[in-house]
Amino acid sequence: MPNSSLLIEVEHLAELRAQIRAWRASGERIAFVPTMGNLHTGHLSLVREAQTRADRVVVSIFVNPLQFGPHEDLDAYPRTLDADRRQLAATGCALLFTPSVDEIYPRGQDAQTRVEVPGLSDILCGASRPGHFVGVATVVCKLLNMVQPDVALFGEKDFQQLLVIRRLVEDLAFPVEIVAVPTVREPDGLAMSSRNNYLTPEERALAPTLYQVLRATAEKIGAGEAIARAEQAGLEALAAAGLRPDYLSVRRAEDLAPAGPEDRALIILAAAYLGRARLIDNVRLNLDPR
Ligand SMILES: Nc1ncnc2c1ncn2[C@@H]1O[C@H](COP(=O)(O)OP(=O)(O)OP(=O)(O)O)[C@@H](O)[C@H]1O
Ligand SMILES: CC(C)(CO)[C@@H](O)C(=O)[O-]
Ligand code: BAL
């Protein structure tokens, strides 16, 4: 059990459960922040928000193979455990859970019982990454059962993931509160993401275009432009800047259904490839009541 300052670090489920039981026995409230590591200020803002809501903050770092497609970046995904551990210790995280793949999938991934949130899992990022949200939903269920937190925190950058998790928690009656944390951005607007590390300096200079185009699309729709027309212009603007758009879509914020003329609470989501990276981002748009 390697320790860094006051941070307890555990790899095995039995040790995790023993520590959680001890905290529970003394009446402590537990918050949980699941991550895939390579921590940045976005992750740390989840940890800080978690601290305001509980006595102990548990963070997991697990690069979940079940949510990666066969040709995706599982092997290349940045693993920076030493730096992550230091940042978590400095931020006041109480326990870092770093399970191995065998700890999470002892029978192997193919034999793992899976959790699927129908509908929400198959659109937008789910359409381009088949099986991704089944992998996310399955591992989040397992991690919630392992940690048994009072509250779990997720970033709005991964908005579709957040809704998938909210839905599974509701449908499967998990006794946990799900808290959404706003997207933390670089000074030029780019949403912080571990995958930004894949960008060359030239690509990094282009990357904020994604957020700029999302904001411009929101402004146009706010000013009365038709949704389909604004979506098309957004896709064209991304391509003209040198990104390869996957989708740019205006949806109902509540459930990601296509936005209709009566809907007021909207979200504009986009994904685009840039070099080796697949960037995602979103902006909310609340139209005035009719
Ligand atoms: N910029 C950000 N602001 C707020 N939360 C974030 C940000 N980036 C990631 N998160 C949240 O941190 C949690 C862990 O995410 P993850 O470890 O996948 O980081 P990531 O930077 O999004 O990596 P990736 O590049 O794989 O998407 C998720 O709930 C995610 O939404
Ligand atoms: C929620 C999560 C930790 C599940 O592997 C992952 O999808 C992530 O980091 O957003
Ligand atoms: N941040 C979402 C995790 C993934 O893209 O696999």
Automatic annotation (TrEMBL):
Residues holding ATP: 36-43, 155-158, 184, 192-195
Pathway(s) it belongs to: Cofactor biosynthesis; (R)-pantothenate biosynthesis; (R)-pantothenate from (R)-pantoate and beta-alanine: step 1/1
Coiled-coil annotated residue ranges, if any: none
GO biological process terms on file: pantothenate biosynthetic process
EC number: 6.3.2.1
Enzyme class: ligase
Positions bound to (R)-pantoate: Q67, Q161
Catalytic activity as recorded in UniProt: (R)-pantoate + beta-alanine + ATP = (R)-pantothenate + AMP + diphosphate + H(+)
Subcellular location: Cytoplasm
Binding sites annotated in the UniProt record for beta-alanine: Q67
Entry similarity comment: Belongs to the pantothenate synthetase family.
Miscellaneous comment: The reaction proceeds by a bi uni uni bi ping pong mechanism.
Name of the protein: Pantothenate synthetase
UniProt organism field: Thermochromatium tepidum ATCC 43061
